[in-house]
# Entry
Amino acid sequence: KAGVTQTPRYLIKTRGQQVTLSCSPISGHRSVSWYQQTPGQGLQFLFEYFSETQRNKGNFPGRFSGRQFSNSRSEMNVSTLELGDSALYLCASSLERHTEAFFGQGTRLTVV
Amino acid sequence: DAKTTQPPSMDCAEGRAANLPCNHSTISGNEYVYWYRQIHSQGPQYIIHGLKNNETNEMASLIITEDRKSSTLILPHATLRDTAVYYCIARNDYKLSFGAGTTVTVRA
# Structure
């Protein structure tokens, strides 16, 4: 059974640009969550999607957004990139909202 | 989510059992104890979770004290590939609140 797939694995963007990251959950999983990992802040919750609806959002500015499609695939978008947005962005999927979550390998975003 | 406390680091010898402690003295009755690990620059890997009974799977065992204020993750035969940061999380809702975890180094 394939795991959570995140694309791209690595990305370099310039300040002010926007970026879209993609996450394909494990087949049959309906919940997708996104996390940001930085050396200073550790792993922080960004948002959670279930049945194409954002259910919860962490403490991040409105530049961070996302969506989920009918096949449960999810994308997150960061607009007007700042240097501080450089991080490992992780997607996790779970069968239902409160069941164990399985993470992808992440997308390493570098903003220059 | 209840706050958890873990030692910042620990070493263990290859082939021996590794016992990772976690304190969650403020855990509420509906919060599960979850363990994840993260090998450098990879996504966190789910290990095991439990509510109040001890649990075992192919990776590890989870021992939760009767009062649920602490737990221990046991890796029965540590290998070099078990070197990672291990996170103990008390979870009652949709998100996982990661702390700093324990950096475990398995030495040959």
